[in-house]
Predict the 3D structure of the following.
Amino acid sequence: MNESPLWTAGFRHFLGSRFMALALCDGPPPPPGDVARFALCLVQAGSARVEIGGISQLVTAPAALLFDETLRPSFEAARGLRCESVVFHPGIVNDVFEPAVLRAGGYTGTAMQDADVLDPFISGSPLRRCLALSPALAARASAALGQMRILLTRQDDLRWPCRTRAAWIELLFGLRAAWDATDPAQLLPSDERVACALQWVHDHYAESFTVETLARVVGCNRTTLNDGFRAHTGHSIRAYVVALRMRAAAQLLRDTLIPVGDVMAKVGYDNPSHFSRTFRSSTGLTPGAYRQRECWLD
């Protein structure tokens, strides 16, 4: 099979060197080239500071990074980062699509409707190119890419292109819906110590640590760090950690069926009463009541 990062060749059916303008690769997407390709980078583990369009922001797994043909991410301070990428021409969605016309909103009728799923890839704001994923959507995205990889590498029957395209478009619809419901990412602070602290907190929020420990990690005193952290986030370090834990707990309660006790442990609590009180203070509901109201799984 052709190993080009820009297309997939047919080698069992529909023989051709450039049959499908879509390809998967491990790691970040390849740099933009002479051939126009959009890209999705699925961040499956770890964290990093990522620069997109000259804007630095924090990305933590699970997340999706979305790019048109002119942009690619630059990763710094990567910690345990694992990702895979899809590069594709927008014509995979509708064969009339070209990047410049998509950005200009030049399509009408059904083509305009099809173009909706590509809006996240052509957003004018770099802060809208980083999409945090729920556990359920992250699992669906990984499964879709796994299915596509099998289809593209095996090409078992004549329908491998249609099945690959169907899996890809289904994933694009899921990402589009999540993009609509997600706030823009936060800019990283210009103070390197606060930026480092913010990334460390996102990596370790489920662990027990003190502000003094974090201050030693980033190399400044407790008061300076807390003041800088509050100036950037609007919260003290301790309040920010609690908010992260509650957000993670809410996602797990909403998008999985794992027991409440396991959710509690995954977000850093060992006392059920404390966890329940904190969660209720944050959401207005106990963990059990929240799951009963919000969980969409049977």
Remarks:
- The mean pLDDT is 90.
- The CA atoms of residues 264 and 274 lie 10 Å apart.
- The longest strand covers residues 38-52.
